[in-house]
UniProtKB/TrEMBL annotation:
GO terms for molecular function: L-phosphoserine phosphatase activity; magnesium ion binding. One of its GO terms (biological process) is L-serine biosynthetic process. The keyword Amino-acid biosynthesis applies. Pathway: Amino-acid biosynthesis; L-serine biosynthesis; L-serine from 3-phospho-D-glycerate: step 3/3. Its EC number is 3.1.3.3. One of its GO terms (cellular component) is cytoplasm. Gene3D superfamilies: 3.30.70.260, HAD superfamily/HAD-like, NAD(P)-binding Rossmann-like Domain, Phosphoserine phosphatase, domain 2. Residues 359-428 form the ACT domain. This is phosphoserine phosphatase. Pfam families: ACT_AHAS_ss (PF22629), HAD (PF12710). It catalyses: O-phospho-L-serine + H2O = L-serine + phosphate; O-phospho-D-serine + H2O = D-serine + phosphate. NCBIfam families: HAD-SF-IB (TIGR01488).
Length: 428
């Protein structure tokens, strides 16, 4: 009999991008002249607890004392936190709806702000385990329920042991208290979540470091909003560029490596090349870069890029935009939805966004019979095509096929083997 799986997910700096108590004190002490000193003290207490250098119960008690908050501040905090849900959790909302019985939020934070934030993700109220505040008659926070196991050192271990869940448990979090579940032997695997913050004391002990929830779903063969985690697409930066011009790639979750820090393998593993003014690119290296999908040319001084070779290899080249940020957006648009309308070397094709389908990109040699073979294969697998787009130039054909999400994964393997294929990938 197949084991039931449970997903134990932390809240602060995991489900959300921020530490809620840190944000609450910023709201409650907004007009306090000593606010900066208090902010710093609370952040230090948070970091000590999360890295394991201070007991959680000591840290929590000290932080709550500094809050000076009431119910009106909590209401403002909830509004703020709803806008701060981690990007990869937001785009995978359908996972939580489908696995409502299997997902538990287990946090040293407080139900008063956690419950209203996770509610829209269909996480059951009874599956939210967290602390609770104590208020006075005027609604001011004066403490918390110190009998709750989650207020104590090792509280997550105590709670999960008491729940006695029958099945395989997987823990996802950014802090030491999350790792303690793995250390106790109560969970099968611990995933250190680093989309928002990375703590060496935690990542060093994790079964797996996951920079996004997409990565977690991909590793565990669970359905996700995108077919391949962006953190696995390596962007190699050649030459010097200001950090602000690279920020769009960082925000999208791609992994950036600068040429000065890269070894020979980085070029072979790169999914995108970002070329600054004066960067030198060796055609021999491009020939070996089997994973390379796109090249972006930044700056006015254009590096020499072998366009015919790139076209033959199915590599899309972008440049000649009004700004470097626009080149970045063109590259991201290609990775996200297959857009090639602003490329140097591919046919001009502008694409509509679609929902509830998988989008397949197929780059092939522009020879007779290529599309016929693809369509025969789709028919063989009984695939319902929602939309199909094709543009060609003298060398290649660029096909976009939007299909129903329910299909045999064998289709993708067979698609890569069709006669004239150069490259193919699923976008989402």
């Amino acid at each position: 009999m197949k084991q039931k799986k449970y997903y134990i997910i932390d809240f602060d700096s995991t489900f959300t991008q921020v530490e809620a108590l840190d944000e609450l004190v910023r709201i409650s002490l907004k007009d306090n002249p000593k606010k900066e000193a208090v902010y710093k003290k609370i952040e230090d207490l948070t970091n000590k607890a999360m890295s394991g250098t201070m007991s959680f119960s000591e840290s929590l008690a000290a932080r709550v004392k500094l809050l000076e908050a009431d119910r009106t501040h909590l209401k403002k905090l909830v509004t703020h936190l709803k806008k701060k849900v981690s990007r990869s959790f937001s785009r995978n909302a359908s996972f939580f709806k489908k696995h409502a019985d299997d997902v538990l939020i287990v946090s040293g934070g407080f139900k008063e702000f956690i419950t209203p934030v996770v509610k829209k993700f269909h996480i059951k109220k009874e599956n939210i385990y967290a602390n609770t505040f104590v208020f006075d008659a005027a609604g001011k926070i004066i403490g918390y329920d110190d009998q709750n196991p989650l207020s104590k050192e090792g509280g997550k271990v105590i709670l999960i042991r008491d729940l006695n869940l029958q099945g395989d448990l997987y823990g996802i979090g950014d802090g030491y208290s999350d790792f303690q579940l793995r250390e106790s032997g109560l969970i099968k695997k611990f995933f250190a979540y680093t989309e928002n913050i990375s703590r060496k004391s935690v990542t060093a002990k994790a079964d797996h470091v996951t920079p996004s929830f997409d990565e977690f779903l991909y590793i565990n063969k669970l359905p996700g909003a995108i077919s391949y985690p962006k953190n696995r697409i390596l962007c190699l930066v050649m030459g010097t560029l200001p950090e602000k011009e690279l920020q769009p790639f960082i925000q999208e979750g791609f992994t950036l490596v600068h040429e000065k820090d890269a070894d020979e393998k980085a070029f072979h593993q790169a999914g995108m090349l970002i070329l600054a003014a004066g960067a030198v690119i060796d055609p021999k290296k491009i020939k070996k870069a089997s994973r390379l999908k796109a090249i972006g040319i930044f700056g006015k001084e254009k590096p020499v890029v072998p366009l015919p070779l790139c076209t033959e290899m199915g590599i899309v080249v972008f440049g000649h935009a009004r700004s470097n940020l626009q080149v970045a957006q063109h590259m991201i648009g290609f990775i996200n939805k297959g857009a090639i309308g602003n490329s140097y070397n591919f046919p001009k094709l502008r694409l509509p966004a679609v929902k509830n389908t998988h989008r397949i990109i197929h780059i092939h040699r522009n020879l007779p019979g290529a599309i016929a073979e693809i369509n025969l294969l789709l028919a063989k697998h009984g695939i319902n095509i929602s939309a199909q787009f094709l543009m060609t130039n003298a060398i290649i054909g660029y096909a976009i096929i939007d299909i129903d999400k329910n299909y045999d994964r064998q289709l993708l393997k067979e698609l890569k083997k069709t006669g004239h294929t150069i490259k193919t990938r699923v976008l989402y």
